[in-house]
Amino acid sequence: MATDDGTYEYKLQHGDDFGRTYFRLFDGLAVSSLGVGTYLGDPTDEVDARYRDAIATALESGVNVVDTAINYRCQRSERAVGRAIEDADVDRDAVFVSTKGGFLPFDGERPEDPGEYVKREFVDAGLVEREDLARGSHCIAPDFIDDQVDRSLDNLGVDEIDLYYVHNPETQLHARSREEVYDQLEETFTRLEERAAEGDISKYGVATWNALRVPQSDDQYLSLPEIVSRARKAAKAAENTATHLRAIQLPFNVFMADAFTVESHEGPDGPQSALWFAHEAGLNVFTSASIAQGDLAAEIPDAVGERLEGDTTVQRAINFARSAPGVTSSLVGMSRPEHVEENVGAGRFDPLGADAFDAVFE
């Protein structure tokens, strides 16, 4: 697992190569404010090899945050991450690894009949109750997530996962009420609290797409205050002294800034954006889609781009995400070693200060 000493030694080795606040704190760990994402790409040996090379290059270049999920590329992304960590000239205790569970994963390749595969491998095998499925492909029931943690540990080849996310819980809103989703989250959080106490995961969180950045009236909305409350109840049920809920993940970029602009979470003094509520609640924020899955590589609005530092459009887009208040690390897909150099270069520039970032929205 990542340790205080391991990540600080990593920071000492690489910190002079980067700008202000490139390394940030996650519960005592020094983590890079740029992370490797592993979502995109076909489930092939060729893409596996590219990911292994890209991740190893990133780890050796000053990026010690790697994010994946068991369903990414039919479990191949998790396995590529594990091999890259093993191959890279970096100690495991310097690397912060996060993964996710929620979507039923294929194994190695997409089956010809996904529905039959899900029935055989998950429902008939007793891993998933049919009534717990949403859209035929998503489950966050405790027993299923428990199984997925074990599979991810095996895929990654690690003894402990640094951050484990419940993946897109808003998907369950297609099958059940919001209150039922909160109840299931609480049950699953309790299981994750138990896994944290056993040393299989260090911390956990929720990785979302729509849930935390939409208005309360939206069908996909989930309340961050309620999620925090349910995590506290889970910690109590697991007889832990404090909750291990420590992070959220959500999309944030120049074109998708809702996490900063939409005030849909009730704070002590009224509605707050997801970023501000998370910051005040002591939750770390990891941004996904930081360059809009490549769309921002070609163009960024002039009014925003002229305020940001960076030699390329991609670097300026990354630095926009890294500049948002409360963000710990911005994730960027890096499936090719040649992408790593440009992306890592973003960290050599200082992010916007708080006032300058606010000014973008005036």
Automatic annotation (TrEMBL):
Superkingdom as given in the UniProt entry: Archaea
CDD domains xref list: AKR_unchar
Chain ranges of the NADP-dependent oxidoreductase domain: 34-213
Membrane-spanning intervals of the chain: none
Designated name of the protein: Aldo/keto reductase
